[in-house]
Amino acid sequence: MSGKNMVLICDCGKQATIKTSWTNRNPGRRFYCCPSCGFIGWTDPPMCCRAVAVIPGLLKARNELEEELEEQLRLMREKDQQLKKLNKFFLLSWARNELEEELEEQLRLMREKDQQLKKLNKFFLLSWG
Ligand SMILES: [Zn+2]
Fold first, then answer.
1. What are the CA-CA distances from residue 100 to residues 57, 91, 104, 110, 122 (Å)?
2. Which residues surround ligand 1, an ion (CB under 5 A)?
3. Structure pTM?
4. Which residues pair with residue 27 across a beta bridge?
5. pLDDT score recorded for residue 78
6. How many angstroms does the Cα of residue 9 sit away from the middle of ligand 1?
7. Please, which residues bridge with residue 31 across strands?
8. How confident is the model at residue 2 (pLDDT cuts 50, 70, 90)?
9. Do residues 39 and 16 make contact, with C-beta atoms less than 8 angstroms apart?
């Protein structure tokens, strides 16, 4: 008996559904139930007591790990969101800096033009005066 596609025919002739038990007494032991007559029986041999002792602990550890992973994933998503917000902020401040530099440059050019204009005015004033 192996694989997920195992098909079991009940004594009544209908195909039985195979499920896996996760009780502490039969962790991981497969059983079948007939949807027609409701017959239930084990497909796997009885659990050895070592498996019964070990598997629930393993399951519990797995579940704890899964929860831990889920929590870490949640934290990572939170950090990712924060990072995205931060990136947006940096992008904005970077754009602002660019604009400020551009503005500064234009102001410098305007002052230069202003100086040239003043020199020109002085020249005209001198030549007309
Ligand atoms: Zn049946």
1. 63, 14, 6, 15, 32
2. 10, 12, 14, 34, 36-37, 39
3. 0.46
4. 22
5. 92
6. 8
7. 19, 42
8. very low
9. yes
